[in-house]
Amino acid sequence: MNTQRKTSQTKQIGGKLKQIKIIIERSDDSYTSYAENVTGIYGHGNTVEEAKQSALAGINLLKKYNKDENIPKILKGDYEIIFKFDVESFLNFYKKNFTNAALERMTGINQKQFQHYASGLKKPRLAQIKKIESAMHSLGKELISVEL
Fold this sequence. Notes:
This protein has helices at 48-64, 87-93, 100-107, 111-119, 126-144, and strands at residues 3-7, 18-26, 31-35, 42-45, 79-85. The protein is α+β, with helices and mostly antiparallel strands. The protein has two domains: 1-85, Double Stranded RNA Binding Domain (2-Layer Sandwich); 87-148, 434 Repressor (Amino-terminal Domain) (Orthogonal Bundle), CATH 1.10.260. A five-stranded mixed β-sheet has the order 1-5-2-3-4. Helix 2 (87-93) packs across helix 4 (111-119) and helix 3 crosses helix 4 (111-119). The longest helix has 19 residues, at 126-144.
């Protein structure tokens, strides 16, 4: 699972920032988003970015139109938002950036396996998910250290 982070102002609670985990999933013709650990947060869009923005708008609406006692505790104060993809959605979203051959070089996972994961024909084991996630995080760290 890939995560992307958006952090509010960081006043940490108990040494750790509260996290809202928003799942991004692809359907036949659009993307949906929902909070894994907070009820009432949902989103939808034609693109991943639209689904993310829709979920963020849902958080704002939940906070704006509910009485304080009806707002989930996690939404009071500062928190971190983590966007999580299922593997199929991640591969389909980033296929314009990574070929299966490039993913194979980065992860050691066969290209045909990536085709199966992206089509939904097969689901990767946890060890495979961790390989993909680790490769993406390594690439991100490498890219963030580049200067041009």
